[in-house]
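At this stage, I put together one protein's amino acid sequence and its C-alpha cells, which the following lines show:
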Amino acid sequence: MSKILICVPCMDMVASGFAQSLAMLQKGGHECAICFECGSLVYDARNKLAKRAIEMGADYTMWFDSDMIFEPDTMIRLFAHKDEADIVSGIYFRRSPPYSPVVFAKCNIRERSWADYGGVPTEPVEVEGVGFGCVLVSTEVLLAVANRDMTWFEPIKGFGEDLSFCWRARQCGYKILLDPTVRCGHVGHIIVTEQFFNAYGGTKNESKS
C-alpha cells in the first residue's frame, strides 16, 4: 500500500463533473489524501502541492486538473504502470479545434521546439511531455527535480508549467509514459473527447520558435 496525495490546483470553483469524478475515484487500497490549492498562478499552486506531498511523506502524487472528468478506476490503472515509469499520464484533448491530445512527442526547451504527438496511440508509449490534467508522479521524481533545479513547475522560457516540469524530470533521467486507454473528458462549453479530435481529422500540429 502506498501513500498518495491527490493534488488539485484550482481557482475558486471546480466543475461539477470533476467533483463527481473525484467523489467516485477508487483508491485501490492505498492511503490517500486530497489537497486543493487555490490561486491564479497555476505553477505556484502546483509547487505548493508538490512541497506538501514531500512534507507529508507521500510516495506518489496524483494530479488532476479541476476541469477533468475521469473514470473511477483512473488512478488504479495509472498505478499499474509504476514499475515501467515514474511519471504516468492518461490522455485528454484540448478544448478548441482541432481538439488534439495534450501530449508531446518532442519537447526540447533548450532548442525552444516542441511537437504534438499527432494522433492517438493505441497502447502505452513513452513521450517527452504531457499536460498535467491526469498524471501520476512518484515523489522520488519531485525530490530529484527539486535537488537539481530548486523548483518544480516554474515556467521556463515561455513554456507552460507542465512541460517545464516534464523537461526537468527528463533531465533527471526519468521517462514519461502515456497510457491512451486512460481517457478523460475536458470540461469547457462542451466536454472534449477523442471523438471531437477524430472529427477534425486528427490534425498534427508541430511548432518551433
The chain has one domain: 3-208. The longest strand covers residues 3-10.
